Amino acid sequence: MKSKLSLIAFLFLSACGFTPMYGNLSGDSQKTEQVREVLSNIEIGNIPDAEGQYLRNLLIDRFYKEGYPDDARYILSVSPVQESVIDLDITKTSDATRGQMKVTTTMKLTDKTTGKVVLTRGLRSLNSFNILNSEFTNRVSKENTRKNALEDIARQVEQQIALYLNRQK
Fold first, then answer.
1. What gap in Å lies between CA 10 and CA 99, rounded to an integer?
2. How far apart are the first and last CA of the chain?
3. Are the beta carbons of 109 and 164 closer than 8 angstroms?
4. Contact call for residues 78 and 52 (beta carbons, < 8 A)
5. Can you list the positions of beta strands (E) in 61-112?
6. Residues 35, 169: contact at Cβ < 8 Å?
7. Cα 86 from Cα 145, distance rounded (Å)
8. Considering only CA atoms, which of 123, 118, 119 is closest in space to residue 154?
9. Phi and psi at residue 168, in whole multiples of 5°?
10. What is the DSSP secondary structure assignment for residue 95, as one 8-state letter?
11. Which of 8, 49, 79, 145 could be joined to 106 by an S-S link, Cβ 3.0–4.6 Å?
12. CATH number of 44-168: 3.40.50.360, 3.30.70.20, 3.40.190.10, 3.30.160.150?
């Protein structure tokens, strides 16, 4: 009985039109390659502050597999990264044992030929970390959380642009 239900569910899932964004389905490999090609043809603008430069480097690693573009079709601009930390899990002695870091920014994709902004998205990443008695450990934990949040933002930027480009093709 369970096998019949799972077979029916599988058949419905395969007929729903779901396609993986980076998948290599027989008919979609050309489309995926086109999206990758356009991603490598996006100029990434400078992002202020150390966090912004780290995010820009992550985006460069994701977009430029074959080197920097000579004549990019799009310009990606990312607003300065905003970070806020709140204390969670307050003990009876008013000490926090967990912290939550929220990292936000906004991305804009501009078509260089028309000068029009074709895509604008607000991006956000929420991460938490332990707060311990050691100041050094807290700094390392907070920095690791910041890097994880920026990696998540970079993934979101790539995903949003790929989804936009998929709809345009």
1. 41
2. 42
3. yes
4. yes
5. 74-78, 82-90, 96-111
6. yes
7. 13
8. 123
9. -80, -25
10. -
11. 79
12. 3.30.160.150
If we measure between CA atoms, which residue out of 82, 83, 84, 87 comes closest to residue 99?
Answer: 87
In terms of Cα–Cα distance, which of 67, 66, 45 is closest to 56? Answer: 45
* Cα 55 to Cα 39: distance, rounded to the nearest angstrom: 16
Structure-block tokens of residue 11: 């058949």
Give 161's contacts (C-beta < 8 A, 6+ positions apart). 39, 42, 76, 109, 119
**Average pLDDT value for residue range 137-144:** 90
- pLDDT value of position 25: 45
- CB-facing half-sphere around the CA of 31: CA atoms within 13 A: 18
* Structure token digits, residue 73: 């079709």
User: The tokens of 133 are what?
Assistant: 């008695």
pLDDT digits (tens, 9 = 90+) for 18-59: 555 555 444 555 666 766 777 888 899 999 999 999 999 999
